[in-house]
Amino acid sequence: NNLLKIQNEDLSIKLQRTETILSRVKEELSHFRATNGRNPRFNFDEEQQLNCKLKETEEERLQLAQKLLGLCTSILKAAGITRPSNISLSVAEEALEQLKNRITSLGRELQDVKFKNKITSERIRLSELKPQPSPSPNRVSQSETPNRVSQTPFLSALDR
């Protein structure tokens, strides 16, 4: 029984020493946190939540970086660069700008082709509307022939 009492007292003394050491460590921690501009009280739950949020944010950042890399690769492939040696945002932006310029140029070419097609269709329509020349030369006046000739160079000049 005495032996148990002595062991109990020893454990109580060790517990008191440990509590004293723990309180000193807590004081040092709060002092350290205060000098670093943090709240002197340490909240383990809050710290754990913040660490979880930090990990989630880092994972999202990594996923976004991977998506950006994939997007840059796709842009470079669309620009005709099949084996990009250095995939970077600036190279992809430059390729994207070139693609934009190419699309604008192709749009203009498309408008030109549509306009030329419209001119050709109008020429065909006009040629169908022209009266067929009759076999008798008396009905055709001399003044109509130069008009037809003068219209053709005008339209062919627009066609070019």
TrEMBL record:
Where is the stretch described as Disordered? 129-160
InterPro entries per UniProt = KIF15/KIN-12
Q: Does the keyword Coiled coil apply?
A: yes
Alphabetized UniProt keyword annotations: ATP-binding, Coiled coil, Microtubule, Motor protein, Nucleotide-binding
Positions the record marks as coiled coil are: 8-116
The residue range of the signal peptide is none
Comp. bias intervals (Polar residues): 137-154
Gene Ontology terms: cellular component: microtubule
The molecular function terms of the Gene Ontology recorded here are: ATP binding
Any keyword Coiled coil? yes
Entry superkingdom = Eukaryota
Which PANTHER family did the record assign?
Answer: KINESIN-LIKE PROTEIN KIN-12D (PTHR37739:SF8)
Q: Can you name this protein? A: Putative phragmoplast orienting kinesin 2 isoform X1
